[in-house]
Amino acid sequence: MNDTLPPCPDCASSFTYQVDALLNCPECGHEWQATEEAEVGIRDSVGNLLADGDTVTVIKDLKVKGSSAVVKVGTKVRNIRLVGGDHDIDCKIPGIGPMGLKSQFVKKAAD
């Protein structure tokens, strides 16, 4: 498994590999062009590309630093804003307020 290659666009498998100019998925057999555009962007925990204004769902309980509050699994966060850095999502959590999240702890919600 190579962490620098994007996940499969068909099945979101992270086990992609490269042969010449093509990327391949061993799980579903999908082949696609290896382009820089495929690697650009912030992706959620399952490989979906995120964009400003998306709605995401938290996939695990997250402790709020400096507080006894916890963001519970399943919490929907609307209208996210993507930023650079360690915490790549700025948002407002209902009942808690503004905070930063890591994209590895969210999944894009199907609205």
From TrEMBL:
Q: Name all Protein YjdM C-terminal domain ranges.
A: 42-109
Which parts of the sequence belong to the Protein YjdM N-terminal domain?
Answer: 4-33
Q: Short name of one Pfam family for this protein? A: YjdM
Q: Hey, which family's this protein in? A: Belongs to the YjdM family.
Name the UniProt record assigns to this protein: Alkylphosphonate utilization protein
